[in-house]
Amino acid sequence: MSDFQMTVLGSGSAVPTSEHNPTSQIVLYKGKQFMIDCGEGTQMRMIRFKQKYRNLDHIFVSHLHGDHYYGLIGIINSLHLMRREKPLKLFAPKSLEKVLRLQLDVSNTRLNYSLQFYALEDYNDKPLFSDHELVIECFPLKHSIPVWGFLFREKEGGRRIDKTFIEQFNPDIEDIKSVVQGGGFITPKGEVLAHEIITLPAKPPRSYAFCSDTAYQTMTAEYVKGVDLLYHESTFDQSGKHLAEKTLHSTAAQAARVAMEAGAKKLLIGHYSARYNELELLVEEAREVFAESYLSIEGETYMID
Amino acid sequence: MSDFQMTVLGSGSAVPTSEHNPTSQIVLYKGKQFMIDCGEGTQMRMIRFKQKYRNLDHIFVSHLHGDHYYGLIGIINSLHLMRREKPLKLFAPKSLEKVLRLQLDVSNTRLNYSLQFYALEDYNDKPLFSDHELVIECFPLKHSIPVWGFLFREKEGGRRIDKTFIEQFNPDIEDIKSVVQGGGFITPKGEVLAHEIITLPAKPPRSYAFCSDTAYQTMTAEYVKGVDLLYHESTFDQSGKHLAEKTLHSTAAQAARVAMEAGAKKLLIGHYSARYNELELLVEEAREVFAESYLSIEGETYMID
After folding, report:
1. How far, in Å, CA of A29 to CA of A5, rounded?
2. Are B110 and B187 part of one and the same domain?
């Protein structure tokens, strides 16, 4: 368990198989849940992998190929039947709103809660989400229809109070507040301890990036520079390079190249074509380019540390 | 195995559970497949229960609540990716066409095959399907939005040639044709055997009816009179009668009452509310009214004989 992690609900591509559901992931950051993409059957996967909706207030949809959103209306409807009351924010390509509103219309459904729609087209230069510790941004990928990647990054934190200071001087709450705000501390003996003495440097901010579906493009590495964990689609292996080119998807080697160029710490590949029964050749191909490459596996949770 | 059977792909209701997928069934009649309803995840169920699409040319959607159609666009899209070429006939409430066309539009998908749409509203007094041996009709049920049931019935066949006649006289092909067309037979010894002597009565035509979602209504028994197998929803047990009334669903006892009034041979109940972990109380309630009541179980195939 980490306070920043990602759980894979589906890692297959357009045609589901007995092994793989289409794309969906849950990012958990300090108790907040964020869903990325929502292929058909995602709500069944939520049940199977014991995920709850209680802290899910944001859903991000990368693009309008069905394997990335056909499960969304089912979740929207189930949340209604489960009597959700708090708003749900949905960030997706503009046209999705029409589809969802029409689906609710034809079934004569008036949701108990507010479904708040935000068009990704409007977020080229501003974050999708920002609070005191986390920012979520989108960036353009390269596919047959408009598609966006998502970057979750922690904000730069302040210096952290050193535990040994607490243990040694047992400061009261007012003293702690003052240190948090950048102050020092005067010991009972009158000794002045500077802020830098009783605090540790800020933890380096952590980050996660999601890139699917996309052909290789040099810009992707710029968008996800230095990311701790990078998910990048690799629909094909090298032998399917012509298909990757034709369908604007990536090979495992190309996904690894993005990870390398970005200086990512770790790469997860996914969006496997239904043609692969064994996925080892994909991850082996990636590792030849970028050693820290791994398969994304449905039901597994990956720490961002 | 029978040449007329029904396989249950999903028997849950609106909110999926770890046990149940939403409604979908496959009717198989002499090699032809017909799908009834198509809740989310139906294509995964098709894979799991080893159903193929090769002989599936007709899909019937009873109504536009999502648990009866959210899986349809996924199948339409997968058939496209699997390079289907032959047309697919879809019989559904009129508004579904708009939803599907919009979903194909936003993903910029032009199907390889022809998706032929037929509005159920236009079939009040003519069959949805009819060939030399099978007729499929729809009839109105009673729910919060327009909903149709479906009746599959064999046409009255002719008398059948008696096997013992074949064994005894080894007639040639012309003789057999003549008997099939109603003629008699002259034995080598010149004896005249009348048509009725060398044939057996026609087999009684078999039939299957699907009724979901619906409140109890007296007309349903009229529509499905004498059916061999009746599927009738029973979302609730008696203790949920007020909910059944409010939501225009049926209790198990009401489903059984329809079976009894219709003189059905056998009843399958389904569309179980997510509240039931154990379904036995539902089928026991039904059996108090109609002894030949059974649970519909996902993955099971029911013969219509």
Report:
1. 7
2. no
